[in-house]
């Protein structure tokens, strides 16, 4: 055997050895995606069934049950009354159940439990309240159309056994992303957008937007409607509400000031859509449901939480500034928004008092008093638009600081108008 033959045999031996090592490692460390799949039927809303096929995603979903404060001190998933930090809520929502119970959201797995326990729900509550609490909305709408919205809430809660979960966002047969809230689909159609033709990246935001958006109940039918006909900024939505769509004039009348108040409902999608991340095509899931890796398998995290808890996966793919700087930037944004939000809320509470006092004066100028109420109605909407959102301003700090600045100015104008109506210069 000559030298060339010996080298060839040695080379082939190394190739065989290397191939054997690779095959053995692949065999030993099989990714979890090789688990035996079970058939998931249409209308299956039990997360444990879905979890048998997708154990990594299911483990992430279950982490949503771990309640914890926000890393920055704002928001979080601990069930505390928001009025503990903002006592002005008691004044600003007089005449509305939010003045009695306004707890921090605990997350998707608690959606139905929190609804049942809420002190804002009474015997007259309607079925529309389950729209964003459970995947059962799919069956309810298929069987009754929007008729489900006017049914007694208790009747539908007995049928809706599962909270927000996999079925809200995934087709059980294809696992493709989907939207099941008809209110979102209808609102997007009015904007000229066909959700069924959306790209996967667009759907990674739409599945969140179908619930994390502002809405109101149409008078009489209680149909859930998104106020987007004129645009998604707080100013554009206020102009839409000013037209009294379908006869909707207000969410409640304030007990003291008699202002017809609009109550904002978590406009998270609207904030994001007009913010820097939304404008540059960064989806909700990119930050709140980042890609993860385990045992060689890439999967989407279903622990839907603050990106500050998953900085490496959520932020580092785009930002290279380092964890400490990223955290300090978010904290600074939220600190500044909180300061103005708290100031705006306090001034709005003062304005309610000023208008109440002017209203007791029989000689008060009614035209000026009506002007004061309109100014305060707009001020409270702007303040609540920011206060009701979950990002504490981070989704769009430039817009939110501007909106709160307008709220503060409008509240002062309302106080001045109330004093002018009563012929006084101060409270």
TrEMBL record:
Family: Belongs to the cytochrome c-552 family.
Keyword Flavoprotein found: no
A Gene Ontology molecular function term of the record: metal ion binding
Catalyzed reactions: 6 Fe(III)-[cytochrome c] + NH4(+) + 2 H2O = 6 Fe(II)-[cytochrome c] + nitrite + 8 H(+)
Keyword vocabulary terms for this entry: Calcium, Heme, Iron, Metal-binding, Oxidoreductase, Signal
Subcellular location: Cell envelope
Any one of the GO BP annotations: anaerobic electron transport chain
Broadest EC class assigned to this enzyme: oxidoreductase
Gene Ontology annotations for the cellular component aspect, listed alphabetically: outer membrane-bounded periplasmic space
CDD domains: NrfA-like
Lineage, top ranks: Bacteria, Bacillati, Bacillota, Negativicutes, Selenomonadales
EC number(s) from the headed UniProt entry: 1.7.2.2
Record-linked InterPro entries: Cyt_c552, Multihaem_cyt_sf
Major subcellular location class: other
Protein name: nitrite reductase (cytochrome; ammonia-forming)
């Amino acid at each position: 055997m000559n030298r060339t033959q010996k080298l060839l045999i040695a080379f082939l031996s190394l190739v065989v050895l290397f191939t054997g090592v690779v095959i053995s490692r692949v065999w030993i460390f099989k990714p979890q995606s090789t688990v035996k799949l079970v058939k998931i039927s249409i209308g299956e809303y039990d997360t444990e069934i879905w979890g048998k096929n997708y154990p990594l995603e299911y483990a992430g979903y279950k982490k949503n049950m771990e309640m914890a404060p926000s890393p920055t001190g704002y928001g979080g998933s601990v069930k505390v009354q928001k009025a503990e930090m903002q006592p002005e809520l008691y004044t600003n929502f007089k005449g509305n159940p939010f003045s009695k119970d306004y707890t921090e959201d605990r997350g998707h797995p608690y959606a139905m439990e929190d609804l049942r326990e809420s002190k804002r729900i009474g015997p007259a509550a309607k079925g529309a309240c389950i729209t964003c609490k459970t995947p059962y909305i799919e069956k309810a709408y298929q069987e009754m159309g929007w008729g489900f919205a006017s049914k007694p809430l208790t009747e539908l809660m007995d049928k809706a056994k599962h909270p927000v979960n996999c079925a809200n966002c995934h087709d059980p047969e294809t696992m493709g992303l989907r939207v099941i809230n008809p209110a979102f689909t209808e609102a997007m159609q009015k904007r000229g957008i066909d959700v069924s033709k959306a790209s996967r990246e667009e759907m990674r935001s739409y599945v969140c937007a179908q619930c994390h958006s502002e809405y109101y109940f149409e008078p009489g039918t209680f149909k859930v409607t998104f106020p987007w006909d004129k645009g998604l900024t707080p100013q554009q939505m206020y102009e839409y509400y000013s037209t009294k769509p379908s006869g909707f004039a207000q969410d409640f009348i304030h007990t003291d000031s008699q202002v017809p108040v609009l109550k904002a409902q978590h406009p998270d999608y609207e904030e994001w859509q007009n913010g820097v991340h939304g404008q540059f095509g960064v989806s909700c899931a990119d930050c709140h449901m980042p890609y993860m890796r385990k045992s060689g398998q890439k999967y989407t995290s279903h622990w839907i939480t603050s990106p500050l808890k998953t900085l490496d996966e959520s932020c580092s793919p785009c930002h290279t500034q380092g964890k400490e700087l990223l955290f300090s930037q978010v904290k600074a944004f939220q600190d500044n928004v909180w300061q103005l939000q708290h100031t705006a809320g306090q001034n709005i509470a003062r304005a309610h008092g000023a208008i109440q006092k002017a209203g007791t004066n029989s000689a008060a100028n009614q035209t000026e008093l009506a002007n004061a109420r309109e100014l305060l109605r707009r001020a409270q909407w702007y303040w609540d638009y920011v206060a009701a959102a979950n990002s504490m301003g981070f989704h769009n700090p430039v817009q939110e600081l501007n909106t709160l600045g307008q709220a503060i100015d409008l509240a002062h104008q309302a106080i001045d108008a109330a004093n002018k109506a009563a012929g006084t210069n101060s409270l």
